[in-house]
Amino acid sequence: MKNDTFLTHSIGGNTASNARNLSMNSVQGHHHSLFGVERYADTNTLRWSMSVGCLLDPDSPAARYSASNVYKRPILGLGMILGGSQGNTLVISDLHLPYHHKDTFSFLEALNHEYKFTQVLNTGDLFDHHRGSYHEDEPDALDAESEYRQAKEYSHELEQMFPEMVITTGNHDFLPQRKLKTVGLPVSMLSDYNKLYDLRGGWQWPKQYRFNSYGGFPVTHPMVLNKRGRWDKVIMRVKC
After folding, report:
1. Pick from 50, 28, 53, 48: which is nearest to 170 by CA?
2. In Å, how far are 28, 79, 88, 103, 118 from 113, measured between CA atoms?
3. What phi and psi, each to the nearest 5 degrees, are found at residue 36?
4. What is the DSSP track for 63-118?
5. pLDDT tens digit string along 168-184?
6. N or C: which end of the chain has fewer CB within 10 A?
7. What are the respective helix, strand and coil percentages of the chain, to the nearest 5?
8. What is the Cα–Cα distance from 217 to 14, expressed in whole angstroms?
9. Could you tell me if 52 and 31 are in contact, meaning their C-beta atoms sit under 8 angstroms apart?
10. pTM to 2 decimals?
């Protein structure tokens, strides 16, 4: 069977249009307020497109620059492709380490225990790089060295959980390279992500990734918060 699904950080802000316009299924992150699956059928095939929200802490300094847009609240959650002939696939998006929600890792662990994922994908913005951003810095955010150190520690924790993962690099992941260009230095001076964060090499970092869904059923899973802003420990059990 040939590859039938396209993974990248961002395709477009209209999930229905993505399903209609692309020649294959698709998965994207980046648009923190988009969460769900749209389908399109023509005379030849049925296609779907999934937008998977984010896992960024909405109360963190890193989320504050977009907080004024009250009509586009971030939706905490992720995507899954369930029931494929090769097993279940997990799709993570927009953790923005170290500014991820504090319950993110326990949420991921619980889902992995429930669904026993055989493939783990990530639509990018794994790291936030707030101090290197082109947005105005928040005064209560971590300093650049502390942010880098904590992001490295959290990435090691995530690597322990998922030793192999494909990550389509997002605009925040690319900030170090963009800053090098801004000051007139070659991007080649920057080590690859696995070296930069002392990772073991089991994570791949393509810009785009095509894979076979093996007939899996796409579904989004919210991380529902209680009144204290903590995950309510509810796991949605989907049978395909």
Report:
1. 28
2. 24, 15, 12, 16, 12
3. 150, 180
4. GGGGTT-TTS---BEEEEEEEETTEEEEEE----BTSB-TTHHHHHHHHHHHH--S
5. 999 999 888 888 888 88
6. N
7. 25, 25, 50
8. 20
9. no
10. 0.93
